[in-house]
């Protein structure tokens, strides 16, 4: 065993597979592996049950993010690219993980994302390889076609609302040269339209609902909640189990076949480092005995930084004023109670647009999340005037950050440094994104509403001004990936079968394995990674 503590752990059983983290990947993987009744599976989750009403009602994310009942409560380090600001860095801490508190947006990314993974030397990860995996778990309400299927666990529906200002923004995008499209998931997502959402009849559809709940009655699946993993245990270089804390008790669960980390782009590298798999200097700094020195564990962090531009409007109502009075709130609640529609069914963003930052860009590298509301920052009140937000992020950032433990104490939060806007290219794209948003806002379909930019404000004009403005108003859109990079090279953290290099019996299955970030929201690609991993793990068991 590794670790610095002397407290003895009591046995919590022996299983074929031990999965750490019941988030999007962990729930799906537990379902797939427990389909074989001859294999036993243990799923450990540091959070609790997803039995709170706000895990079900879509607008509940407002009450979940930042709440210790549902969120780890991470913060970034002060970010030079954000002019020294720290950001809240929400990560789900509940059955379903981030899928229980996220924006419910169904996006795969672009075909080129996966073909690039394959070209980096990861066979079996190209678009033609992964498209059948996406289709396998889909229950696509609009109907089956060449790209979508029905009957799977992952419910995808159209949103149950529309707003006049969003319709106008959509038409303005078309006037600015973007095509109107109905499906962002066919491999090329350039265009404007409404997001599809992971909901069923106006209720959130999380990975816990979709994958874990149907599997929990299987006798070969054991789910342990409020069980925070402290380290992976090794016999030499072979992973043999996981030591975790449940309440005041230290326990150990043994794995006959494999330990599988599904703790996400923050949790998986943190646990590897705590277990002696990580950069040698970091392990030495914290007195952790090395099992395998892997310099890249916790490196290669990528995230989508959103620039939240905001415009005052007139001649139309937005959520800012619609929800300002008790009567307005009552009407919203009544609409949801009767029809499961209206603002309480809203995903955090409703209208999407994917665009190119310049004529030399081969495919869309900007994504808009457009909302009929504005506020100073997440968790603060809506502004008392009608306005909309056009939030735009760079889909393929060049900047790379890190996740590193700051202590050998497993309960201490890791040090998260995304390193936003660290390259000239990222700053140039940020400036181009602001200019494009202004061009869209100046199109004729929005003219009747007289949009007036107040974030960042029209005084920011030069390239230097715009980069500084992006640093002032930019924030995470909650898509960290890449910290346990997959690759064929010796420096990669995991190989193309997601096995951790330098040790045996240990895999990582979550967004941390992405070599490069996908060109869209990352929750559904994480689900695909779990589907792919299930096949790899079953094949290894048969070999």
From TrEMBL:
It comes from the Bacteria. One of its GO terms (molecular function) is oxidoreductase activity, acting on CH-OH group of donors. Its cofactor is FAD. Pfam families: GMC_oxred_C, GMC_oxred_N. FAD binds at residue 94. Residues 264-278 form the Glucose-methanol-choline oxidoreductase N-terminal domain. Keywords: FAD, Flavoprotein. Belongs to the GMC oxidoreductase family. This is Choline dehydrogenase. It comes from Albimonas donghaensis.
């Amino acid at each position: 065993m590794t670790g610095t503590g002397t407290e003895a752990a009591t046995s919590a059983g022996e299983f074929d597979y031990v999965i750490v983290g019941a988030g999007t990947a962990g729930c799906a993987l537990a379902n797939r592996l427990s389909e074989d009744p001859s294999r036993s599976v243990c799923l450990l989750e540091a959070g609790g049950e997803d039995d709170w009403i706000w895990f079900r009602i879509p607008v509940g994310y407002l009450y979940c993010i930042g709440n210790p009942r549902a969120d780890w409560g991470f913060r970034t380090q002060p970010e030079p690219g954000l002019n020294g600001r720290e950001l809240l860095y929400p990560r789900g801490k509940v059955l379903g993980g981030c899928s229980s508190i996220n924006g419910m947006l169904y996006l795969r990314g672009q075909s080129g994302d996966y073909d690039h993974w394959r070209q980096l030397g990861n066979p079996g990860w190209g678009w033609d390889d992964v498209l059948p995996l996406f289709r396998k778990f889909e229950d696509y309400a609009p109907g089956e076609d060449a790209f979508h299927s029905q009957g799977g666990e992952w419910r995808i529906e159209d949103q149950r609302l529309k707003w006049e200002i969003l319709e106008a923004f959509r038409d303005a995008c078309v006037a600015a040269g973007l095509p109107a499209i109905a499906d962002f998931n066919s491999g090329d997502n350039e265009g404007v339209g409404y997001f599809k959402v992971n909901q069923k009849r106006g209720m959130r559809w999380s990975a816990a609902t979709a994958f874990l709940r149907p599997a929990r009655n299987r006798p070969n699946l054991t789910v342990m909640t409020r069980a925070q993993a402290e380290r992976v245990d090794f016999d030499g270089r072979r992973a043999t189990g996981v030591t975790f804390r449940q309440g005041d008790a230290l326990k150990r669960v043994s794995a006959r076949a494999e330990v599988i980390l599904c703790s996400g782009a923050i949790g998986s590298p943190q646990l590897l480092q705590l277990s002696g798999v990580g950069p040698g200097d970091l392990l030495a700094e914290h007195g952790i005995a090395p099992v395998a020195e892997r310099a890249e564990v916790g490196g290669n962090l990528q995230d989508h930084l959103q620039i939240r531009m905001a415009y005052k409007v007139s001649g139309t109502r937005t959520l800012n004023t619609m929800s300002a009075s008790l009567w307005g709130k009552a009407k919203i609640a009544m609409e949801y109670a009767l029809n499961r529609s209206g603002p309480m069914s809203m995903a955090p963003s409703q209208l999407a647009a994917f665009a190119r930052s310049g004529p030399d860009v081969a495919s869309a590298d900007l994504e808009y999340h457009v909302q009929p509301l504005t506020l100073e920052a997440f968790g603060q009140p809506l502004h008392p005037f009608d306005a909309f937000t056009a939030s735009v992020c760079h889909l393929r950032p060049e900047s790379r950050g890190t996740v590193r433990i700051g202590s050998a104490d497993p309960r201490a939060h890791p040090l998260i440094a995304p390193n936003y806007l660290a390259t000239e290219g990222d700053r140039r794209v940020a400036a181009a994104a602001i200019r494009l948003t202004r061009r869209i806002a100046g199109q004729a379909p929005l003219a009747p509403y007289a949009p007036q930019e107040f974030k960042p404000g029209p005084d920011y004009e030069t390239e230097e001004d715009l980069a500084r403005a992006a640093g002032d108003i930019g924030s995470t859109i909650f898509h960290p990936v890449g910290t346990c990079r997959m690759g064929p090279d010796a420096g990669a953290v995991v190989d193309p079968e997601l096995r951790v290099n330098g040790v045996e019996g240990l895999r990582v299955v979550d967004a941390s394995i992405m070599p490069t970030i996908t060109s869209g929201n990352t929750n559904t690609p994480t689900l695909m990674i779990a589907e792919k991993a299930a096949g790899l793990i079953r094949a290894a068991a048969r070999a």
